[in-house]
Amino acid sequence: SQPTEQVPPPPLDQFSPQKPGQPPWVWAGMGALVLLALFVIFVLPGIVQDYELPLERRVEESLATAPVAPQQRAETGVSPFLEAQRARERKEAQDVLAELLDTQSQLDALQVEQWAKMAYDSALALALEGDESYRVQEFGSARDAYQQALAQLSATLASVPTVLEQTLISGEQALIARDATTAIANYELATLLEESLVDLAAGIASNDAQIGLTRAQALEELIDLLDSAERAAGNPARQVEILEQAVNLDPYSTEAAQALAQARADRLQERFAAMMSEGYTQLQAGSPQEAIARFEAAATLGVNENEARAAIAQTETEITNAKIAELQRRALDSEAREAWQEAVEDYDAIVAIDANLPTINRALDYAEKRARLDALLIAALDTPERFAEQAVFDETRDIYFTGRAIEDAGPRLVAQLDELQTLLENSQVPLSIRFISDGLTDVTVLRVTELGTFEQTRLDLKPGTYAAVGRRAGYREVREEFTVGFGLTPAVVIVRCNEAISTALGR
């Protein structure tokens, strides 16, 4: 090796305090700076490594540590394996701590102390225990304490949806209790919690909290409107006007909605009562159709429809009864006049209205029988000449006795029967009728007898209508109709066949 060159020592007066131009305090300051630099370089790193504060965020660092000189390891007495394990536990504790601090920040932003103070304080107490372990370099214990604290804070954060639901319920209860201050506080917290869920759900959430907050902020005004509506009791129209404002102010208020529904129902009840009163007034005034129109209008209001329908039915019944009474009066008048067919028509009209009136049904049956009897009597009196026929006579006689069997017969019936009696009696007294012919014509009185040929003869006939027929060979048949009795008896009946058939054809 080359011999080391000897460097001559500096002059003694180079750092001497007596050197001209260098005051003594300068040299003292330079010495202090040198000592400070040596402290920063060699002492401070070890202090920072051993006493780093755990509640501050740190930058990720590698588990690998700077190589330690063998001489240093020998001085500390810690093996490389244990040193590496401690470094790993320290990093794990710091990782858990970083997550713990992040969760704590989220909960602080959600005002956790308002809704989970005990759980939050318990978790922080565990974190402080971890800090103590960290300070004495028990990194495994610190990590475990941090993990327990993180688990508690994570559970608290996970309970936000449940807390939100409970807070919304509390807010609703405060609204119902008309406690605006409590309601606003609950809904403000709920809004904060709801917004955190929106962030977690990528913007998908309900607006229940914001709606509740808006309602709570308007609660005082809503209460004033509800109180005003209550003071307007007895004036449903005014109540509806006020409560419509209340519902517009808070569409979600059950109290306002129910009060408005009740006020509207009261207003309808008021209108219903007025319409029904008008209807009864019209009914008393003798205008049943107008009354029914009022009742019909009341029935369309949607309240007490059964009552309105009952009034309509009652009015219609009264109208029907009045009409029946009028028809019955007319029928009785017709009976008194013995105009039985008119009575039948009136009774038929009543039955068409109500077929379940026994008295009317009996009266109709009697009137129909009397009308038939009256018609038969009229027919018999109009054709007395038919009495000569025995069958007609017998039938007419039965009609006569039927009429006589009626009690309390009216004057019309009595007169008809008296007249018929005379006709029947006279119809049985024969009258002598003179017939003249030419001695060549064969004469027959239809349904009575054959007279044959004659020039003059007589035949006794009962009052009635007859027909004499004459026949002669080569001559046209002749027919002579005549009536016996009733003032129509002919003096003579001439029956001759004078018109020769051949002569008629020649013409």
Automatic annotation (TrEMBL):
Residues 1-20 are annotated as: Disordered. Keywords: Membrane, Transmembrane, Transmembrane helix. The chain crosses the membrane at residues 25-48. Residues 1-12 have a biased composition (Pro residues). It comes from the Bacteria. This is Uncharacterized protein. It comes from OM182 bacterium BACL3 MAG-120531-bin86.
